[in-house]
Structures are given as structure tokens and as C-alpha cells.
Amino acid sequence: MSQGGLELRGVFRSYARIPVVRGVSFTLRPGEVVGYLGANGSGKTTTVRMLAGLLPPTRGAIYFDGGDIAADPGGYKRRFGYVPEEPYLYGHLSGQEYLELVGGLRGLEPRRLREKIEGGLEAFGLLGSREAAIESYSKGMKQKILLAAALLHDPELLILDEPLSGLDVSAVLLMRHVFAALARRGKIVLLSSHALEVVEKACSRVIVLHQGEVVADDSVANLGALMQLPSLEAIFAQLTQQPDFEQSAARLVELMGT
Amino acid sequence: MRLYRYFLRSFFHSDLVARGGDPRSLAVAAAAFFGAPGVILCLYLALLGGQGDATPELAFFVALSMILTGLLAVLAWEDLFPSRTDVLVLRPLPVSARRIVGAKLAALASLVAGFAVIVNAYPTLLLPWMSAPGAASDSLVARMMAAQAVATAAGGAWAFLVVLALKGLVLALGREAERLRLAALLRFGLLAALLAALLLSPNLLAPREFFRLAARGPAWCRPLFWFIGLDRRLLGNAPPAWAGYGRGALPALAGAALAAVALYPLGCRRQFRAALGAASAPTGALARALRPGLDRFLPQPRQRAVFGFAAATLARSRRHRLYLSAWLGAGVAVGLETLLASPGRASAAPVPLLGLPLVLCFFLLLGLRHTFTLPIQPAANWIFRLSETDAQPERLGAAPKLMFAFCAAPVLLAALPLGVRLWGWRRAVMHLAWVGLLAVVLIEVLLLRFRKLPFTCPYLPDQANFKILWVLYWLGFTLYAQTMARLEYREWSQPWRWAATLLATAALVGALAWEGRRWRRQLPGCQFDDEPEALVVTLFSRD
Fold first, then answer.
1. Partner-chain contact B389 A77, CB within 8 Å
2. What is the per-residue pLDDT for B181?
3. What pLDDT is recorded for position B539?
4. Does the pLDDT at position A26 exceed 90?
5. Residues of chain A neighbouring B295 (CB-CB closer than 8 A)
């Protein structure tokens, strides 16, 4: 059993006896930003939800700093931050109120919490709309609130499921730098995303999932050299056996045009 | 025609319908619910038999039609005008605004007409037949039926048009934020008032009470008498007093219709404009102002977070406010009924007056406890699950404080000036201490074994067994509001015994609070699901 970081050991998950995640094993070390890639339906989000403690694995176990997370879920929950795939937020609260709710639930003291909220909203350019109800926010603004909420309690592990969807260019750039800064402070960042160019630039390592199984786990440079491919996009396409997109697109347009 | 059907169907789409339940079954259930009072009372009157002056019965049915149609308008408040979704979906299509408004109005007219038939059909057929003199010809009975049909339908239509015009007026006024606040207040007030009126309406069946009201009733009773007068005038044998009332019916109906017709397009235009802008809901200056006080009142961060979330939900969620205002309306009605039933000298501290704050506290606390089980955006409750630690007592401790702050405290504050005026400071403070202690006892009892955070657990319809619960509620109400008021009255003039009663109640509060805290400390966690794992799998299985 590893003593530092997060380890998945032979994790399986099925829905109605249909396996979605099949024996996934990997380890994330402190100071790493790891990209978690896979096509739609590959089991990425299910893995992320198991890591966040929202779903129990059907088989296998998840360890954090050497301890099984199922043995002390409360202790584990205190130590990680999570951004879900869908921006499920309470729309009747304002951005500021939502962050106060999350900070309060995390047990942060009011004065410290307000400083953090102020800084988070300022960094994401949300100070002007802090008192508006979240239901009036754009998707990108909601995503920024989720990211700020996940960082409030200074987590050791950050689990992010499609955190960049809907973000504007400047926010994406900011997030890339935030990931790097967190890694420098010894935090672990798991970034599940379809934005391959961001993953390529931000992550020190990528894990590729295909039909519920890990098919690659290495740095982009090593994978490129091994497979003799120029980019993460090409590596991903080959590993996940993607079809010929040009041909498929031509067929679709022809069908719709008739 | 498609638009008309779409709008008509939208009235029956409710998020309170059971999963898998269809709007048609909701429509049938609603028809049965609203039609039942008329049917039951007709059967009861048929069993009693007897002929003679049926004006009190007619008054009851006209009042029922007006109140229930008014309630329908308040419950369908969000659907009275084209919604934001309607505008966003329909405006990009090649459909003119005039057609959208026309279809909406036609759907509303069909809804009200269908509703009038459900509520009034049975009483209209039976009451004239039962109350007609023995020698009455068939044509006279038919005329009585027609007159009653017109009077009840006109009364209902008047109530609906007034609510429609009020909503149009609110939409046409001020800025978006002010409109939303005003609309919320108006809806809350209308619902509470209509429910109170509904619960008080059976008093009309007592001839003495009815004729007293007709002779010297308050001004707000007048619309009812217009439409009773209309019935009497249509029959052609109206006494002068009723004829006078009846002359007011058509101008009142025309006035309400004119106001609705004038304000509806204006409201629609504002609604269309607002829908195309950002959907902005204000978060309230009051919440911001109260924030520092909240830090002092609730020093534990987790408790403050849950309290703030629940308070914001109660203040901003229309559905939750609507539900709570229904309970408040019931409380107001029962309190008024008790006061009206036993007039006495207030300064002598009669039991009904002492019991009034207890009645209001009972209904509000029970209502809020039920409202806790209605979730707001259940998919967003993951944040409560993920931040769950071993600090359960802290988080669960927010609910009793919220119940006291939102239910007991307003009643106590409202009752204080009245108590001081009637009985002086010393007595008033002792009375309110008693009400406050009993409120805390009720809160602790209502929250026994409650391990959910307010508004975070998905709602499962058909869970509450009302067949058993209403008996418990009735017993609880009798014990809480009536027996306790009598006890207070009995001890009123004996300060030492009264002080001992207060001390004993305080000890009970302490014991209940201690037991509640002990139980919360032992909990493994809060409850977020009433469902087996299958639902969780559905919710989280999309990849």
C-alpha cells in the first residue's frame, strides 16, 4: 500500500450488472497534475464520483495517504475539493452566499472565509455579480463559482470533472496557472477533461481510459515517443480507436442535406 | 389550437406530481378535491331534509365558488401569464405575440369554465330542487337552477379576474426586483386570506350568523352579497336589501373584467421583455444586513451555513413560501374561528385570546416541519454530502433554531404589543414566556428523530400517512393550543403556581433538548435519500 497520495487498486463499478469501470488501478503522488482522459461512456465520470465518495466501488478499494477512504469517509472528505461535471448549484443563492455556504460547511471561520471569498471572486472576475442569484449566471460563471468553492478549504487533493467547460480564455489560462501553483505546494490535481490541448499543457501525466480500462498511463512526451505520434490528440485517437472523423462528418452532412 | 392545448396542459404540470404520475391523473384528483365540498354538503342537506329560506346555503355555495376559484388563480399564479420558458421557446418560432397571448387567454378561460362546472354543478342541480316550495312548478325550479348557476359562475369569474388584474398590475409596476418581491408578498397574503375564508365559510350556514353578516357585515363581505343579490334579482322576487346588493354584481364583474383586459397586455409585454433579458432574482438587502448578526447568533460555522441556506430558501423559493402560507392561512382561520365563537372581555384574559398565539405557533411550526421535507434542487445537495464530517449535531442543530426564528419569534413579536395593551407589561411578558416555552417544546417534539437537513432530501410523495396523522395532529392541537390556554387561564391569578408551571415547562424543554442533542451525537450521518440505491444509480450513472 502506498504511503503518500491517492491510490486506486483494482476498482470495479457496475450499473445493473453492466460493468462500467473494470479493474482500474493507478496512483497519484503529491505535486502531480494528472489528466484523466476518455471518450464519452468510457467510465471517466464514474471513476471521479467514486474518488469523490459519491459512489462506492463494486469491487476494489481507494486509498488516500495509505488509509482506505471507506474506513474514514468524514476524514477523507475534509481533505479533498471536487468540481462535478454538471454545474449543480443552488440557483436561489447568490455567488457570495453559495461560497459562504460551502465555507461554512467546511468549518471555516467567518473572517477568514470572507477574505477567501473576496479573493476568489476577484480572481475569477465575479465581484460585480457576487450578489446576483446564481440562476442568472452563465455556465462559465457557475463553473467559476464551483472552482472557487472547491479551493476554499485548501484541499490536499483536487478532483475536477470537466472543470473548464464554459470558461472563457482568460479563466482557462488562470486555471492552468492555478493547477501549476497547487502542484508546487504539494497538492494533487486530477483533471478529467475533453480539452486535450489544456491537458497537454497543464498536466505532468495523463491516464487514458477506454471502455472502463486504463490503456495508457505516462507523460505526454513519453507516450508520443513510444507511439511515434506528434500530439496528445493523435495519441488519444489511436488509443481509444476513434473512427475516421472526416468520413463520418461527410456522411452526416450528406444525410441531413437530402 | 396546438398552442392552446400546450398552455392548457401546462396548468397540470407540477413538480409535486409523483414520479411517473401523469398530468391527467393530477387533473382528475384536483377535480375530485375541489368538487368534493359541494357534493358532501349537498348530500348532508339532503339527509337533513327541510324546505324554506335557503339563502344561507346559497351564500355558502357562492362563497365556495368565489374562494375556490380565487385559490385556483393563486395556485396557478405562475401560469396566468406566458412564462419565461414559453417566451424563450415560442418567440423564435414563426408565432406572433398576439397569437401566444390569445392562446393563453383561451386556455385560461377553458380552465376557469371547467373549474366552475366541477365546483358548482352538483350544488346547482340539488339546492334548488331541495329548497323549492312543495308546490313549485318545474319551470320555477329550472329558473332557480339557472339563477344559481349564473350567480356562482359570476362570483367565481369575479374572483379570478381580480387575481388576474392584480398580477397584471404587479407585472406592470416598477423594476424586476421590486415586482418579484411585491408578487411574492401579494401571493402569500392572498393565499392565507383565501384559506382563512374557506375555513370560516361554513359559518354562513348558520342562519343567525349569516343574517347578522348580511345586515351589518364588514365591507370585505360585500362581494359575496352582490352575487347572492344577483341570484335573487334573476328570480324576480328579491327583497329590497338583496336587490340593492344585486345591482352591484354586474358593475363589479364588468369592472374586474375591464381591469384585467387593460392590465393583461401590459403585463404580457413586461413579461416578454423581462424573459428576453437575464433571469435575475434579487438576493435581498435584508439578508446582507442580517449577516453580521447571524455570526453572533450562530457562532458555529456549519450551523450558520445550514441556517443561512434554509433561511434563503424560505425567503426566496415561491413553492416553499406558498406551502407555508397555506399553513398560516389555516392557522389564522382556526384562530379567528375560535375568537368569533366565544366572544368575551379581552382584558379578563379569556381562553381563546390566550390561545391565539398558541394556535398560530402550532400551525406555523407544523407547516414549517412539513415544508422541510420539500427539497430545493435535490441534484445540488452533493455539496452537503461531500462536506459531511462528524459534526452532525452542529449541522442538525440549525433546524430548531430556524423554526423558532421563522415561526415562534414573529408570533411572539406580534403578540407583545397586544398583550401589553390588554394586560400590562408583567402579565404580557409572563404570557409570552409561556408561549415561547411551549413553542420550544413543540419544536423539539416535531424534530424528534429528524435526521435530514432542511430542503436537501428528495421528496417522495405518498410517504405521509395522513389517515393516521390527522388524528394525531388534532389531538396535538387540542392539547397544545386549547388545554394549555385553559391551564394558563386557571393559573392566571395565582402567581406562585404560575411560576411553578413555567419552571416545570422549562425543565421539560431542557430534558427534550438534552435528549435531542444526545441522539444527534450518536448519528452516523445526515439522511439525504429516502430511496433505495436504484435512484442514486440513475442520478450518477451518466458518463
1. yes
2. 77
3. 39
4. yes
5. 110
Task: Please determine, for residue A234, whether its predicted confidence score (pLDDT) is greater than 90.
Answer: no
Closest partner residue to A97 among B312, B541, B543, by Cβ?
A: B312
| Single-letter amino acid code for the residue at B20 | G
Q: Does B391 touch chain A (CB under 8 A)?
A: yes
Half-sphere exposure at residue B120, Cβ-oriented, CA atoms within 13 angstroms: 32
Q: List CB contacts (< 8 A) between A136 and chain B.
A: 278-281
Q: Which pLDDT belongs to residue B543?
A: 36
Contact A235, A220 (CB under 8 A): yes
User: Which amino acid belongs to residue A172?
Assistant: V
Task: Work out the average pLDDT over A85-112.
Answer: 91
ipTM at complex level: 0.84
User: In 3D, which of B318, B329, B405 has the Cα closest to residue B360?
Assistant: B329
Residues of A in contact with B391 (CB under 8 A): 107
Q: What is the pLDDT of residues A148-188, one digit of tens each?
A: 999 999 999 999 998 888 788 888 888 888 899 999 999 99
H/E stretch holding A207: strand A205-210
- What is the spatial distance between Cα A85 and Cα B49, in angstroms, rounded to a whole number? 68
Q: How far apart are CA A147 and CA B39, in angstroms?
A: 58
What are the tens digits of pLDDT across the range A54-83?
Answer: 888 999 999 999 899 988 888 888 899 999
Q: Which CB contacts under 8 angstroms, 24+ apart, belong to B323-327?
A: B323/B367, B323/B370, B323/B371, B323/B374, B324/B364, B324/B367, B324/B368, B324/B371, B325/B187, B325/B188, B325/B189, B325/B191, B325/B192, B326/B191, B326/B192, B326/B195, B326/B367, B327/B363, B327/B364, B327/B366, B327/B367, B327/B368, B327/B370, B327/B371
pLDDT at A5 > cutoff 50 = yes
Residue of B nearest to A47 (CA): B543
Say how many CA atoms lie within 13 Å of B19 toward its Cβ: 6
A77:B387 CB<8 A: yes
Contact list, B388 vs chain A (CB under 8 Å): 73-74, 77
Candidates B512, B308, B302; CA nearest to B397 is: B302
How many other CB atoms sit within 10 Å of the CB of residue B123? Answer: 27
Task: Name the amino acid, one letter, at B334.
Answer: V
Q: Cell numbers of B290, please?
A: 442580517
Q: Residues B281, A135: contact at Cβ < 8 Å?
A: yes
- pLDDT < 50: residue spans in chain B: 16-20, 346, 531-543
The C-alpha cell that represents B183 in the structure block: 408578487
pLDDT, residue A111, reads 87
Minimum-distance CB partner of A136 among B279, B295, B379: B279
- What share of residues in chain B are helix, strand, coil (percent, to 5)? 80, 0, 20
